[in-house]
Amino acid sequence: MAQTELPDVNTAREFYSKYEPKEILGRGVSSCVRRCIHKKTQREYAVKIIDLTDDNNRISEELRNVTHNEINILREVSGHAHIIELVDVFETSTFIFLIFELLKKGELFDYLTEVVKFGEKQTRSMMRSLLEAVLYLHSQNIIHRDLKPENILLDENLQIHLSDFGFSTKFDEGHYYSELYGTPGYMSPEMLKCTVDENHPGYSKEIDMWACGVIMYTLLAGAPPFWHRRQMIMLRRIMEGQYSFPSPDWDDISNSAKDLVSRFLTVDPKLRVTAEGALAHPFFQQVEDTYRYFVKPFHARRKFRVAVYTVIASLRMFLQMQKHRPLRFVIAAGDPYGVKCLRKIIDASAFRVYGHWVKKAADQNRATLFENSSRADQKRLLDLEEAAGSTVVNNGLMISPISSTGNSLFAQTVTS
Ligand SMILES: Nc1ncnc2c1ncn2[C@@H]1O[C@H](COP(=O)(O)OP(=O)(O)O)[C@@H](O)[C@H]1O
Ligand SMILES: [Mg+2]
Questions:
Q1: Weakly modelled stretches of the chain, pLDDT under 50
Q2: Residues spanned by CATH 3.30.200.20 within the chain?
Q3: Which atom of ligand 1 is nearest to the CA of 104?
Q4: At the top level of CATH, which class does the domain 13-101 belong to?
Q5: Closest Cα to atom 26, ligand 1: which residue?
Q6: Judging by beta carbons within 10 Å of its beta carbon (0-12, 13-18, 19+), is residue 324 exposed, middle or buried?
Q7: Pocket lining: 151 vs ligand 1, CB cutoff 6 Å
């Protein structure tokens, strides 16, 4: 079993001199994974501590060899965007320490438990990344042999990183394997058949594609395709490829998604879709833009520039709106001089007519000239004028009426 106590300082001086181990992130059969801090840079990493001793305190050379194989494969696949990055390795007589990049969102399995199931859009994004990683492994003649949501880790942007190469192996084209590896629910029919039929030709890289089918089915439905509480029945179902798309879980899922799942879960490995074939499937050809949006790298300066332009544009729109507010008729008719644009026109017209501004005395307001109802005194003056048929001098101003109709007063004002 994986040890949860930390190895003592004397047995792992080199590791402790560089890293400070923190809380446990996960556990495997013979390993314990912890968060750790690189002392010099204060950066966070994950350390997989593999205890090579068994219950009787004997060192397992087999486990050491298996771990060396894992390290070699990890080093070979290093640099792929969707494969975990091995950063450093320390080895003592009883422990091996593998330092990995820290994947803060943990296992896809836990994330799936949290959200129950994914929509097609998110499944498409995750499956595309997984298939790109698997395609790369197969092109390097590597079979993973333990693909499952527990071994797919997520970073802060929910991008997947394939991990746990403990069961991985290099394969030669045309060479077939018969050993049982992996986790029952994800094992392929041909791998299981090897255990019941000693004349079975064996399995190769196609087992990873079967596991991809189980993963995709589980992501879309929130439940695995072959599960039964009695493991024997589940294994029989796998060997016979007995699964369905039950209602209501699958009612809203597209035919292209179902078609791709069934191409993964094809019992005959020769007819099963390859990683390359799956990536060319119509399921991945649709809504290409959505995918591009998902993987678009974050550019701080570009984002900031867009934000600045947005603020400037909204400010300009706001100011333009303020400047050219729609003018309501009641306002224009009731108080035209109170409206800035009309005031300008009125002033300009007045200037043209009189050759100067009409305001002469301190107690006189130009706005009164445009009032719709005449003041009592103005009315009186007009009445007087009408009666006399002449102009009247008032406060140094000569007012000669042009016409006076109802509420509207059209007055011509001239200087004396
Ligand atoms: N780099 C990492 N970042 C965060 N968690 C990790 C990391 N590596 C492993 N883990 C956690 O530790 C668990 C066991 O690691 P894994 O490599 O799968 O070991 P095992 O081979 O023993 O299954 C993972 O399922 C995951 O929960
Ligand atoms: Mg694991």
A1: 1, 288-290, 359-360, 373-374, 390-416
A2: 13-101
A3: 4
A4: alpha beta
A5: 26
A6: exposed
A7: yes
